[in-house]
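The following block was generated as part of the benchmark described in Methods. Ligand: phosphoric acid mono(formamide)ester.
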Amino acid sequence: MTRHFLNLSDAGGDAIAAMLGDALDRKAARQGWPKGRPDSDAPLAGHVLAMIFEKSSTRTRFSFEMAMTQLGGSVIVADAGSMQLGRGESVADTARVLSAYVDAIMLRTDDHAKIEVMAHHAGVPVINALTDLSHPCQIVADLLTIVDHGKALPGLQFAWLGDGNNVLNSIVEAAGLMKFDVRIGCPEGYDPDERFIAQARAGGADISIHRDADEAAAGADVIVTDTWISMGQRGGDAKLAVMMPFQVDAALMARARPEALFLHCLPAHRGEEVTADVIDGPQSVIFDEAENRLHAQKSILRWVFGQL
Ligand code: CP
């Protein structure tokens, strides 16, 4: 059966644990190597990944291309606007056509239903590189960063501050699969998707929503936030004002455990969701997190091809 990676549950907890182990091993094995040199086993030699972007990207675009390079494969990158997809060709037809040319398809889009249609009609694996609903690749990199910094996931307490967006949905989903808890500090009207919360609770995770930022951050092992105005969203000054009590600043970080990590998937807006002293401070691991997009994606790619 074709393995798609539209959400973390498509893989499940055991596969995510295997991805994290594989990513740590491969990352360690190529320390000091030129970045374009393939891993010694080049496990995806001859494989081609199509990368389609309907939204802007820096990290996802570069890290996926380098991931395929290091695994011995190659990519074809296209902005949807330069494809017939951007002129009305259906997602279903595009999926069937591309499946004849490439070995896997990665899509960044808005409506999650589009990637579900892509996966339904594709004869090759489809990977979610961000939709309005979820961002599973980002969260594998986040988990890798936490583990790489010496923390075991089960029993950890995450605190999310700010908008209940696609990144939070995938963190909540991960909580049920990897057995950690999430306290969500967000204003009323900005809660994450209820389906992910229900699924995580069914998996044993303690997911709680707080309208007070201090309460959410108290005793946390990991503090996470993200931009308040996601790509393609309107919100403006009214949204910034309602989010401001959930800004991550030094006082909020002091509510967490002294050894707590600060994560942000980037791009960041210093002075909005996080202050500069926190994001550029000693507890921030944002650039390890960004690097780990590369290592995590290599393992996601190996999983969709049945190698993990
Ligand atoms: N975090 C993330 O997905 O970054 P890009 O939008 O730059 O790909």
